[in-house]
Input
Amino acid sequence: MQRNPQLNAHGELQHLLSIEGLPREVLVQILDTAESFVGVTEREVKKVPLLRGKSVFNLFFEPSTRTRTTFEIAAKRLSADVINLNIALSSQTKGESLLDTVANLSAMQADIFVVRHNSSGAPYLIARNVKPHEHVVNAGDGRHAHPTQGLLDLYTIRHYKKEFTRLTVAIVGDILHSRVARSLIHGLTTLGAPEVRVIGPQTLLPSGVEALGVRVFHDMRAGLKDCDVIVMLRLQNERMDGTLLPSAQEFFKHYGLTGAKLSLAKPDAIVMHPGPMNRGVEIDSTVADGPHAVILPQVTFGIAVRMAVMSIVAGN
Amino acid sequence: MRLHIKGGRVVDPASARDAVGDVYAADGKIAEEFSRADRVIDAKGLVVAPGFIDLSARLREPGYEYKATLESEMDAAVAGGVTSLACPPDTDPPLDEPGLVDMLRRRAKALSRARVYPLGALTVKLRGEALTEMAELGEAGCVAFSQGNVPLRDTQLLWRALQYAATFGYPVWLRAEDAWLAKDGVSHDGEVATRLGLAGIPSFAETIALGTILELVRATRARVHVCRLSTAGAVEMMRHAKQEGLPVSCDVAIHHLHLCDMDLGYFDSHCRLEPPLRSQRDRDALARGLAEGAVDCLCSDHTPVDEDGKHLPFAEAEPGATGLELLLPLTLKWGAAHKLPLAVTLARMTSDPARILGVATGRIVTGAPADLAIFDPGAAVRVTAESLKSQGKNTPFLGYEFAGRVRYTVVAGNVVYEG
Output
């Protein structure tokens, strides 16, 4: 088996490709570093000079507004130069290969590539082919991983719950297509959360998901019982063609988070969502805007977490 | 050419012969002892075996010459000790017209290396809509009819195809994969695919399709060879089908004997294969089934892919691996792991595939075509891009070292390779 391609010879984070396989210490280092940056984002001058003179290329092979924007803000707060490339609309459609695109950008002196791609594993291919001083940060690849989202979810949980070792966490909805779920599951199991549950219909659960260390529930009421943390996943519109689910209404009836279902969790449970939300499909507005929801703080923490990741990889 | 191969360990699986001795060839055939040879090969310390017969090797002609040419792949074949090979019809255009088949055979013959047995397309353009002219294709040299890796969704047409082929006694070679269940899938549907976020092909995509095929064989009595099994369930089904007396046989590709989905590692696109690498349990069942005879033989499933086709994210990468030159070392490795006598190990790529192809090669007996592979079973071979003669350098085994080096390959009494 090859060495974990995201760690350098000293076991330090060279690229961030997946939470899976990262040692606990590396995760804690990222979360602690993020904590120190939360202060920065609240200051009047929201900048630190850690990445001054460095270039961050946002390489988005798949459309995204939120993730790309938060990476851009994070890079700018670290004083980096940010170049946004919306590849979905340019060279790929002209037939240029993924590696040719990266080689061309590399010739423009990149330091960090932030990559989103619709094919699982694409950031690994890029990481194998960049120069030694260049770093790759996965901003979401296919169904595989979305490690900065997973980290900001971990950060949010730690912020509200302080520690992981007594928590019951439920992840609800389309686990099959969710890179967010996979990253969060790996993070939670690495940090010692004793019970991670996934809740959804069989058509939206990947086979053998139990092997990731989770308990499977098809009944949301049973699955939410005594949970500390509820993570609702976005149900993509393209899943609604009738082959996986009969309708959005029926999905909401079984797996939508309502106040009544939320009351089955612990009284101080928090509700998270990676966004963008489909109100009335996976979450009721009263819950999304209610006192248990920590969905907007997640976004704020996301910037600090991405600052932490970029500053750590650039320093290794 | 009168050839005398002297003092080698002669292993002929068909006759269970395994003894040090001499082999003579004259006029392209294995001959009785003679005294005046044009050439004497000292085979001391080497194994003299029938030339290997590979039931699936893509030569990429016509249509995909940028991936490989007939020259490069025929070089690879004889460097691997392969003296006969069957090539699937999924070329561009597919082998659905006698002219194409004829041209391929003549081009191959002109190179005078391995013997090429084309498989004709079962349906026009492999589209699964209309049957090809099997008699015409048969006359042009097609030994059987196949869809290659292209699915035939229409089970009624499959039924008709088997009826028609059975009428005229043509064998049909099929892969067992339900096209709907395999839709969009790129890996074995299981824990690894779940972890990597890759779309899976469930094992029952193979067993359901195989169930359909076996039921149609029961109805039509067509002679069917099932290509490249990948699941433990299919091995069991084949075992029972043979016990029942159905006219069926099957093979497994070398990769599936030695690798499983765990080997995908960090999205290694060299492990993107058709069928997908499955679980360890499946791998072990295939290896055991081959040892016990439920699986008849091995093939290299040689599929040269150019670098651009593999330098892509896993799901987008072109499936396939180069294999002709790895057939011997990987077969020996499997045989050693199962503690099989060398004659049994070698049978899976000599006499057994010869039986399925219906050819006279694959044995060392006076009067048989003098196709031989002479190899050093203990010599180390390191698999590198430079060492491979095939234009395809795509193999999950790059960098590995195996035992088993081909020293001479003889086709029709002529030495066509010396290594």
